[in-house]
Design goal:
The protein is α/β, with parallel strands linked by helices and about 280 residues long. It has helices spanning about 20-35, 40-45, 50-55, 65-75, 80-90, 105-115, 125-135, 175-180, 185-200, 205-210, 230-235, 250-260, and strands at about 10, 140-145, 170-175, 220-225, 240-245.
């Protein structure tokens, strides 16, 4: 059994870890339309690296009508749909042999529903974050694939780092601001450089001296939490330790954090997994 030393850095994804997962919104939408769950995530992932979603998260294009049109087009590719449907048939032989038409999705509605839903703090991880911050024993950092909302959008903030969750972190690496997104290995290198720089620049402070920050941060002194397996695999290749955050069950990851840190982190929210909302959709189909 491998024994790990206590980390210097706890590195968090945001969506699906510190806030409610946008995947919950996607799942709700797919179930409301009666299409096989996973199509939207498949469609987004298979457009990498040049799809509209990925370019938005790297800050290469703005969130505007051109993005919505391009994102909507990416969601309606018949070749990708055919491949996805064949994959679902291999898992479920009861599906009709002939693939139905590509599902008609409202990309603009979906995107904004995802972003709005994922603006709410996760009821299990948010208390843990505040308790970690209060302990002062770790560098708290975030590594997130992000979107820059334009002025006038409901989610626009003049001060990007000023919201209640972002301001908990010592270091915040935002994909749309650095021009890289997970799982590109370069963004993990960038994150390592940022936490190392923070540690060394605060090495002469009280907790910096106590926690050995003068020596900087090595990859295996970072524990990274994310809800996407692909991102966690890339982090492991970069030498980080990892924790998978299950959809709707972040309390399981909080349990792991308590073991790693030796701290009581959980709040008093019931340990009941979040379930899909099956009340239908207000999208324009």
């Amino acid at each position: 059994m491998v024994t790990h030393h206590q980390p210097k850095v706890l590195l968090f994804d945001i969506g699906g870890v510190c806030v409610i997962s946008p995947f919950q919104s996607i799942l709700d939408y797919e179930l409301s339309l009666g299409i096989p769950p996973g199509w939207i995530n498949h469609s987004i992932s298979k457009t990498a690296p040049s799809g509209f979603w990925h370019r938005l998260e790297r800050g290469e294009i703005p969130l505007d009508d051109a993005f919505y049109a391009g994102f909507n087009k990416d969601l309606h590719d018949p070749v990708r749909w055919e491949a996805f449907y064949k994959l679902q048939q291999s898992k479920n032989p009861d599906l009709p042999k002939k693939a139905p038409p590509v599902p008609k999705l409202d990309g603009r509605w979906l995107f904004n529903d995802m972003m709005t839903a994922s603006n709410a703090p996760d009821p299990w991880m948010y208390p843990a974050l505040k308790n970690l911050r209060a302990s002062g024993k770790f560098i708290l950092a975030a590594l997130s694939n992000t979107v820059i909302f334009p002025r006038g959008h409901a989610l626009y903030r003049e001060d990007f780092l000023g919201d209640p969750i972002r301001k908990l972190f010592d270091v915040f690496v935002s994909s749309a601001h650095v021009g890289l997104r997970k799982p590109d290995p370069k963004i993990y290198e960038h994150a390592l450089g940022e936490v190392d720089k923070f540690a060394k620049s605060h090495a002469d402070e009280g907790r910096g001296r106590t926690l050995g920050w003068g020596e900087g941060v090595k990859p295996d002194e970072i524990v990274f939490l994310d809800d996407i397996g692909e991102n966690l695999k890339a982090a492991k290749k970069s030498g980080f330790r990892t924790i998978k955050v299950p959809l709707g069950k972040a309390f399981e990851a909080v349990d792991e954090l308590e073991v790693i840190t030796g701290l009581k982190l959980a709040g008093d929210h019931p340990r009941t997994p979040m379930k899909p909302r099956l009340k239908g959709s207000k999208a324009n189909l």
